[in-house]
Amino acid sequence: MSHVVVIEDESTVQGVLKFHLERAGLRVSAFGTVEDALPSLTAADALVLDWMLPGESGLSFLRRLRADQELKKLPVLMLTARAAEAERIEGLETGADDYLTKPFSAAELVARVRALLRRTQAEVPQVIALGPLSIDVPAAEAKKDGAALNLTRREFDLLTFLALNAGRVYSRTELLDRVWGADFLGGERTVDQHITQLRAHLGDDPASPKFLETVRGKGYRMRTWNP
């Protein structure tokens, strides 16, 4: 399930956004300020961002976002009451992927967010190759040295997520959010157990890992492989 973060300080509008996006089958985290939303952005698939916010404006934050190496590719739909063409252009040139003027219809909101998500999903490779490891995403099949790995669906999802983001460290909380979902009731120990199981499948030594690396105090990452 795709995860959409909403930053909108008007509680009524925020509630409307959350209601319609969740009704469309999306997972939504809604916040009133940029500061509150920041920890959730690394686990987001798209951002719905209001132009006028308390403290830092949405436009100012968008500039910061596009300069951030980890978040610069996050798809952004900007919301605003500003209907002038010059202001719409300013938002798009600052880095917004799309623009929606208030008031808007629920159908248009959902359609625009889904369009952003499709663009992102279209960039996901069909097959991920990391040295002797090969992951066929559509077929939900992983192989090492040509031999199929007997993975559960959750193990496959975790392996695929880390492989798609090789080199980047994810905390246990982030992995729970991205792989298991925000409504999962288990704890962080679940992530450790699945990493242990994946290492067993891969024949990976935790003391000298070729694939799944523990970063002390931070979490886990998939190691990158040079071609």
Automatic annotation (TrEMBL):
Keyword tags = DNA-binding, Phosphoprotein, Transcription, Transcription regulation, Two-component regulatory system
Task: Spell out which residues are annotated as carrying 4-aspartylphosphate.
Answer: D50
Q: Which residues cross the membrane?
A: none
Asked if the record carries the keyword Transcription regulation, the reply is yes
Location of the OmpR/PhoB-type domain: 125-224
Q: Which GO terms describe its biological process?
A: regulation of DNA-templated transcription
* Keyword DNA-binding carried by entry: yes
- Provide a Gene Ontology MF annotation, just one: phosphorelay response regulator activity
Q: Which residues bind DNA?
A: 125-224
From the UniProt annotation, give the residues forming the signal peptide.
Answer: none
The name on file for this protein is DNA-binding response regulator
